[in-house]
Amino acid sequence: MSVNALLHEKKFLHQILSTIKEEIFVVNEDMEIIYVNGPQKFGYNKESVLNQTIFTVFPQLKKENSTIVKVFETGNPVIGNICTYITSRGERKMSLTSTYPIKEDGKVIGVYEVAEDISGISKLSEDLIKNQLIQKKNDIFIKQKAEDNRFYTIDSMIGQSSSMKKLKERAVITANSPSNVFIYGETGTGKELLAQSIFSLGSNSKNAPFIAQNCAAIPESLLESLLFGTVKGSFTGAEDRQGLFELANGGVLFLDEINSMPKNLQAKILRVIQEGEVRRVGGKSEIPINIKLISSTNVKPEILLENGDIREDLYYRLNVLYLEIPPLRERREDIPYLVQSFIQEYNKKFNKQVIGVDEKTMDFFMGYDWPGNIRELKNIVERLFNVTNGKVIRFDETELSPYLALKQKDIPSPSPVTKKNGRVRLKEEIVELEIKIIKEALIETGANISKAARDLDIPQQTLNNKIDRYNLRSFIDSIRA
């Protein structure tokens, strides 16, 4: 039975496939496109591509570079490939594709490809890895020291508690050491601020680059080329470009959420550290580099190792100098200093002349556990700023209701473990911990489910399902109220 006949028998699938956002097309043994799942995929009119060969539709495509040809020849799928093409409108597009064989009696009689448009992500990536440093502040950004000193400094680390004083002293020690630095801190404690402060303290920071990359913010398929750079022709559309390792040469590369990096990429990072050389994707030569690597995580190192989220050999290479940022609940005496700093910042932003907060508000600040740490405190101060007209921020139960609700519920900490009838109910403990983490993420993002899902590193639909399962819609409403 031919592929055409198979498709004819399953016309009902068309309605289903046409609703999928990914581009799907099917190619027969003559390399002809016999199915496209939408009226205008790939920037081409559907009628103009059907029954045309892939080499006619994509004239820049070469046989030796085609994953479709490869799947026909090997019978094995090719998953997670990046390809570029020019549309009929002259637009340059980039897709993340997975190509699969259609077999009958062990013979490949067709191939189908699923493609996700990543042109937007690619454009962002390209902007970052051009041969010059640019100033950009986002999930991914590259910064270079400027005369007006855009970097955080040791003075940016606000706090007079003994734990913060020790942390600052430790930061000074690490600043002029060439050794790698590993930072642990809960979400919202200021890991990047600390990394920039260490860089700013360095003797060569005026002329050296500081480059930061959130390892969880970029798809795995793009992260390797972003870090290592590319050689022209290494994949379709690839150009000669420096990666972040090369751009950071002579300075600091900060890798945030290092535990989100895939294991195969961790092995390559280890080699760079050991050899002091980097090889671009598709390249054959080694490029010497001299960088200081600062990495961070919001998961305790011992848990990372226990769960196998980070290679042990890489961890010990990264963790030469260790810094741990204390959570806000363990340095409450710093809260008044932080609040005053945020007030000064928001006075400029809102064009107000607020001088402080009333006693009841400060009592709340001092008694709250701050699961979102400094980031959450700053969020609350900004929220109260929006409803403040005088010179003093007064306690507003309406604006603080979601935080009061969380405090009143007194969600149990995962440690120590609660025992029931002398036994630990692991499933119940996991559920309680999951609810607590989800609530913290929702509070931190102002009940922005999309952003909370990104922070939790799970699909948005998964988070929505958990919200419904744990009846958290009313909790969300209280935050948004």
Q: Assign the structural class, choosing from mainly alpha, mainly beta, alpha/beta, alpha+beta, or little secondary structure.
A: alpha/beta
Strand fraction equals 15-25%
How far apart are the termini?
60 Å
In helices, the fraction of residues equals: 40-55%
Q: How many individual β-strands? A: 19
Could you please describe the fold and organization of this structure?
The chain is α/β, with parallel strands linked by helices and 481 residues long. It has helices at residues 3-9, 12-17, 46-49, 54-57, 67-74, 119-128, 162-175, 191-201, 220-228, 244-247, 263-275, 301-307, 312-318, 335-350, 359-367, 373-386, 401-409, 426-444, 449-456, 460-469, 473-480, and strands at 23-28, 33-36, 78-86, 92-104, 107-117, 140-144, 181-184, 209-214, 229-230, 241-242, 252-256, 277-278, 287-288, 292-297, 321-324, 356-357, 392-393, 419-420, 423-424. It has a 6-stranded mixed β-sheet. The longest helix has 19 residues, at 426-444.
Tags for this model:
481 residues, alpha/beta, six-stranded mixed β-sheet, five-stranded antiparallel β-sheet, 21 helices, 41% helix, globular
Question: Topology, pairings included?
Answer:
Blueprint: H1 3-9, H2 12-17, E1 23-28, E2 33-36, H3 46-49, H4 54-57, H5 67-74, E3 78-86, E4 92-104, E5 107-117, H6 119-128, E6 140-144, H7 162-175, E7 181-184, H8 191-201, E8 209-214, H9 220-228, E9 229-230, E10 241-242, H10 244-247, E11 252-256, H11 263-275, E12 277-278, E13 287-288, E14 292-297, H12 301-307, H13 312-318, E15 321-324, H14 335-350, E16 356-357, H15 359-367, H16 373-386, E17 392-393, H17 401-409, E18 419-420, E19 423-424, H18 426-444, H19 449-456, H20 460-469, H21 473-480
Parallel strand pairs: 7-14, 7-15, 8-11, 11-14, 16-17
Antiparallel strand pairs: 1-2, 1-5, 3-4, 4-5, 6-8, 9-10, 12-13, 18-19
